[in-house]
Amino acid sequence: MRRTLPTVLIVVVGLLLLADFVIINPSLAAVAGVLIEYLVLLSAAAAVAGGLSLVARHAGDLLHRRGERSSSLLVLVGIALILVAGFYPGSRGADDGAVRWLVGALLAPLVAALFALLFIFLLMAARRGLALRMRETTVMLAAASLVVVLLLPLGGVLGSWLATAGSWVLAVPIGSVFRGLLMGVAIATAITAARLLLAVDGASDD
Amino acid sequence: MIERLAGRVGSWHRLAPFGLLALLSLAVVLPPTAPTVELANPDRSSAAAFGAALTALPNDARVLVGFDPDFGTYPEISYATRAALDALLRANASLAFVSYSPEGRALATAELDRLRRGGVSADRLLDLGYRSGAEAALVGSVASIVPSSATGRLADGARAAGGGIDAFALTLVVGGNDLDPRVWIEQVGTRLPKQRILAIAPTFLRPELEPYLHSGQLSALLGTLRDGVAYAAESGASAAGTSSDSPPSALAMLIGMLVGLGVLLESSGGRLLGVVRGIGWGDRR
Amino acid sequence: MTSFFAPGPAGVIGTTLAALVTIAVWSYLAGERRLFAAAQHLLAGLATGYFVLISVREVLVPRLAEPLLANPGAHLVLWPALIGVVALASARWLPRQVAAVPIALLIAGTAAFALGGALAGTLLPQLAASLLPGASTAGGMLNAVISLLITVLVLLAFLHGARGGRLSDGAAGVGRWLLVGGLGGWLGFLLMSRLALLVERLRFLLVDWLGIGR
Fold first, then answer.
1. CA distances from C160 to B64, B283, C130, C179 (A)
2. Which residues of A touch C194 (CB under 8 A)?
3. Minimal Cα distance from C132: which residue of B?
């Protein structure tokens, strides 16, 4: 098994952070605190790296007349609009009125409009799933139908009965399925993370 | 003949989304008339538990608001969130906002601005800003969440109480797609087991959060639109301003859900019965 | 989401622009692909710009640049962070081995927090909640037994496909169907979430923007 600097770093840093989680020790906590600060800073740097990479790619496409140039231009205009509003002299960054206006007028409604379409697309996907005549799809859609009935916004006696039944269905059958699912996923996550941190089978080799 | 008929049906299917939008639009602008249509959940247990957790706070309590909803789901929970913030402010609590996702940060700045414009005094609001790194940032916040640059009564008080998340009497997590309350439970709840975590989350996260509510890792949860509306109605929400400060039209929700139900049941016919029989005979397709 | 705007002309223009981009995205339903694609590219640019803006202004500047500029000698632990940040931000132009070091740190952190969180935050508490339900009434006990049975069967479904006895294979099969049903239930909740957003967006267009039924 080849051991490289990144592999050694993953093992040492990962185990240090885990040790800090289970052992109360001021020296260990101080080291873990520094490592966590590095992780926070590196995550921010990763965002900047992503941004730079996107700008380089689309600027390259524009300069070399590759691909859809209008699309590249729109990406660059979007980035420039926010950065100008957030970095002009005297700007308060994300809390600046100009940034908030851009987010409210463009960014937020674009995302919300896309998500709102998902209701229609989900129904279309359900129809197509049924057309495939898969038994799993039928059971899944039957369960979805039952939940939709229980969530119907009705008042009166019928509404109260549906709400009570809905609370039971959520707490017992669905809650138990999700408990099993979360536990299964937690076991899988723990095994994968442990293999990575212990460099088993070259999982973290360069 | 059959092909022509199929073509006609196909074009009707293409028009169906517009028919749905037209129906929903009509329901949105119509005044609510049918008393049997009620968006607030008649089962008030979740709303009551959430309200009780807020009213149990001591006077002048410091509350940390982990604000990480997203643009795609915030409209669903904004009504309940504003009602909860209003209730906390009425109980004389001070609110410190922190975000671990970009969209959460954008929405937090808008909510803080709305509260300031609404006349909430500056010393009862604290903007702790954005932290990159999700889990790492949350773990780092356990020991230190108040930046050295933060000033004012609330920042000083939190700093004097240790400067970490446990310097706050309560944590209210407003979750969404990018960072849901489960991450708070896994990273903060395990390190600060005595810290009470309340959550407001969009409906689709409700099944995932149910086990944590049942195990007591979440103190209280407003996890569906109906629970949120029920809570807001009981707490006497006063967040007036734009029409977006009111809950979605109950009639439009009912129509949309009935249409959805129709589509889900359509063409399934007696297939479910066949599936049940199939399960009984084993897993052969 | 009109709370982004203060009252005034800027708010009116912002609301109008928000309505127009909403219609541009929804034009996809009418088969208009170009407007939809344009909206997607603008969204990608705006989201990236915002992510970069807050990462620089709210993290890198106050937590790295300002302390180092104010007193370079007092923050010795930040110098390695600066090197890592520069290496990661310029990873596109550096040799792979150099950028691999900060990426390894990020992987280590992600794995360690995922492992700790999954075990201590989910697995153990949920195991305890399943086995020690704390119900006092007969109905509560019955619910607890049903819950435990479903949870065990769903957990067994994760073994589906692995060699086992006839009983465990059968139980895993039932668990798989329960899992499918549970995910179907989740689909019902998801539909309600998405419908709530669709209704809110329609209200934004009709009431907030056009003023109908206000």
1. 43, 12, 22, 12
2. 115-116, 118-119, 122
3. B215
- CB pairs below 8 Å between A and C: how many? 420
Compute the CA torsion angle C49, C52, C54, C60 (nearest 10 deg): -160
Pairing label, strands B125-130, B170-174: unpaired
Residue of chain A minimizing CA distance to B279: A135
User: Model's pTM, two decimal places?
Assistant: 0.92
How far CA B135 is from CA of B145, B188, C27, in Å, comes to 14, 9, 38
Q: Which two tokens stand for residue B191?
A: 């390190």
- % of chain A beyond a pLDDT of 90: 78
pLDDT at B172 over 80: yes
Which residues in chain A show pLDDT less than 50? 1, 206
B91: distance to nearest CA of chain C, Å? 23
What average pLDDT does chain B have? 87
* Higher pLDDT pick, C86 / A132: C86
A143/C58 Cβ within 8 A: no
- Report pLDDT digits (tens) over A179-196: 999 999 999 999 999 999
Chain A interface mutation, best of B187, B192, B242, B271, highest count of A Cβ atoms under 10 Å: B271
Q: Which of B3, B110, B61 is nearest to C50 (CA)?
A: B110
- Using the predicted structure, report yes or no on whether residue C190 has a pLDDT greater than 60: yes
